[in-house]
C-alpha cells in the first residue's frame, strides 16, 4: 500500500489511462475523485471501485470550465478532507495538417490539454498550499518532447504542459508541492484507436502501417505501452516521499523517446 489514505483527483478518469490510474490508486490505499464530462463512465468507475471496497466519488467536470473545475475540486476537498494528488489527464485528439486545421479545433485542443491543466492546478494548489504538501502530476506524452506530422495542436499543448509543470515545481517548492509530468508512448485506449483509421486516411497508408511505422516504429520492441505501465509511474510519482523529485518528466514509451 503505497498511497494509504492519499486523496487524489484524476481528470478524464472515466476511461483509458485516467481510469487505470484511479483504480490503481485505490488498490494502493488511496481515495479518488473521478472527474470527467462523461458522467455515465464516471459513475461506472466509482461503482467498480466501491465493489473493490474502495472509496471514490464522481465529479462532473469539463476541464475548460473554470467554475466547474473550482467547484468540483472544492467538493472533493470537502468530501475527503484534503487533496494530496492531482492527476491532470483529461484529453482528446484531433489531427489535421496545419493548412486544413480549423482554428476552432486547434483552440479546443489547447483549451482542454493546457488550459484544463492550468485550471486544475489553480484549483488544487488552493488546498495543497495551506497543507504544505501535494503532488501535481500532469499527463504529457512523448509528444511533450517530440513532434509528429498532423499533430500541431496536440504537440504544442503537450510541450506547453512541460513548461507549466516546471513553473509549478518552482512556485510549489516553498509550499511543499511537487510537480512532474508523465510522458507515455502510444497506449491502446479509445483516444488512440480512433487515430489509426484517421491517420491511415490522412497519410495514405494502411492501418497496419500506421501502427507498425508511425506509432511503434521507433520503439525498441514494437510494443504498445499499457495503461498499467502508466499507472505504475503515477503511483511512484504520487507516493514519492520527499521534494527531491520535482520538475521532471518521466517517459514510459518502450524506448521511443529516451531522455
Ligand atoms: N493513449 C495514448 O497513447 C496516450 C499517449 C500519451 C498521452 N496520452 C494522454 O493521456 C490522457 C488520457 O488519454 P486516454 O488515451 O486515456 O484517452 P481516453 O479517450 O480513453 O480518455 C480521455 C478521457 O478524458 C475525458 N475528457 C475529454 N474531454 C474532457 C473535458 N473537456 N473535461 C473533462 N474530461 C474530458 C473523456 O471523457 C475520457 O474519459 C490524455 O491527456 C492523452 O493525451 C495518451
TrEMBL record:
Coiled-coil regions listed: none
EC number(s) from the headed UniProt entry: 1.1.1.30
Keywords: Oxidoreductase
One Pfam family here: adh_short
One term of GO molecular function: 3-hydroxybutyrate dehydrogenase activity
Organism superkingdom: Bacteria
A single GO BP: monocarboxylic acid metabolic process
Enzyme class: oxidoreductase
Family: Belongs to the short-chain dehydrogenases/reductases (SDR) family.
Entry-linked PANTHER family: 3-OXOACYL-(ACYL-CARRIER-PROTEIN) REDUCTASE, 3-OXOACYL-[ACYL-CARRIER-PROTEIN] REDUCTASE FABG
UniProt protein name: 3-hydroxybutyrate dehydrogenase
Amino acid at each position: 500500500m503505497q498511497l494509504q489514505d492519499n486523496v487524489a483527483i484524476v481528470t478524464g478518469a472515466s476511461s483509458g489511462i485516467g481510469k487505470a490510474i484511479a483504480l490503481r490508486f485505490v488498490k494502493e490505499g488511496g481515495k479518488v475523485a473521478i472527474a470527467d464530462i462523461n458522467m455515465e463512465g464516471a459513475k461506472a468507475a466509482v461503482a467498480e471501485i466501491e465493489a473493490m471496497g474502495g472509496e471514490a466519488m464522481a465529479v462532473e467536470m469539463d476541464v475548460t470550465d473554470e467554475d466547474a473545475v473550482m467547484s468540483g475540486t472544492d467538493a472533493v476537498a470537502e468530501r475527503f478532507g484534503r487533496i494530496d494528488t492531482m492527476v491532470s489527464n483529461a484529453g482528446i485528439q484531433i489531427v489535421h495538417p496545419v493548412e486544413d486545421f480549423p482554428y476552432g479545433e486547434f483552440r479546443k485542443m489547447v483549451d482542454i490539454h493546457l488550459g484544463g491543466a492550468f485550471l486544475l492546478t489553480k484549483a488544487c494548489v488552493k488546498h495543497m498550499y495551506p497543507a504544505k504538501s501535494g503532488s501535481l502530476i500532469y499527463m504529457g506524452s512523448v509528444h511533450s518532447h517530440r513532434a509528429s506530422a498532423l499533430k500541431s495542436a496536440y504537440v504544442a499543448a503537450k510541450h506547453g504542459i512541460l513548461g507549466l509543470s516546471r513553473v509549478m515545481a518552482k512556485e510549489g517548492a516553498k509550499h511543499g508541492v511537487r510537480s512532474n509530468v508523465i510522458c507515455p508512448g502510444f497506449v491502446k485506449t479509445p483516444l488512440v484507436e480512433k487515430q489509426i483509421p484517421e491517420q491511415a486516411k490522412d497519410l495514405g497508408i494502411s492501418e497496419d502501417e500506421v501502427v507498425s511505422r508511425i506509432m511503434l516504429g521507433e520503439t525498441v520492441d514494437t510494443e504498445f505501452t499499457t495503461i498499467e505501465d502508466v499507472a505504475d509511474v503515477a503511483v511512484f510519482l504520487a507516493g514519492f516521499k520527499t521534494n527531491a523529485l520535482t520538475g521532471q518528466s518521466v517517459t514510459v514509451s518502450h524506448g521511443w523517446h529516451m531522455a
